[in-house]
Amino acid sequence: MKTFQSTLNQELRTIFSRFVDADERFLDDIVSGARLVKLDKGSYVFHSGDLCEAFLLLVEGGVRVRLTAASGREVTLYRIAPGGSCILTTSCLLGNENYPAEAITESNVVAVAIPSAAFEDLLERSRQFRRLVFDGFATRLKNVITKIEELSFTGIDARLARVLLDCEARGVDRITHQEISVELGTAREVVSRHLKRFELERWVDLGRGRVMIVDRAGLEKIATLSD
After folding, report:
1. Among 66, 147, 182, 208, which is least packed, fewest CB within 10 Å?
2. Strands 102-105, 44-46: parallel, antiparallel or unpaired by DSSP?
3. What superfamily would CATH give domain 4-151?
4. Domain residues of the chain, as ranges?
5. Record: fold of 155-223
6. Which DSSP category does 51 fall into?
7. How far apart are CA 17 and CA 69, in angstroms?
8. pLDDT 10s digits, 88-117
């Protein structure tokens, strides 16, 4: 008869096999220190200032990482999809620092958690694990740099168009002006003003908590503008 732990270990092995080309020894190393974590939609994965205690690999669902200023203004830094890890988690584990931002689940989530001690051990002795960690780190860092470039050099119209197209691609059919402002890192009033102009141009149709794309080609053209 299988024990609970042996069943869990087999589940973890199956999960990691979906994301990495791993040999049996690597899978044994991973599952020996890992645990499965399940969170409901709207749960905090971590708060700003929390101690970083584990490396996380997302298996199912989506997580949004956001930064909140002292003024209360928020901006979305990036999202984590299945197979991805969090650059802030990796950075905090490597530097023994606390989290500087917040992560919130956007759906029910399943993740694999590797405690910090096991993470350090695997990082030191497993080439495959190092590649898994740093490939994910490089990809996420590139996304963060792109986000910074957009905030610094891209006009509000282009950024707004990109957010609306991204929401449609992710199947998000209801979003408030405040939620869009968080995505853009700007004030809600600015978002409302530009959305009203988008509606006058007949690119979108506005409703209560809803922005419906009417002219996708028009938005795609706006989204390519750099300033």
Report:
1. 208
2. antiparallel
3. Jelly Rolls (2.60.120.10)
4. 4-151, 155-223
5. Arc Repressor Mutant, subunit A (1.10.10)
6. B
7. 39
8. 999 999 998 999 999 999 999 988 899 999
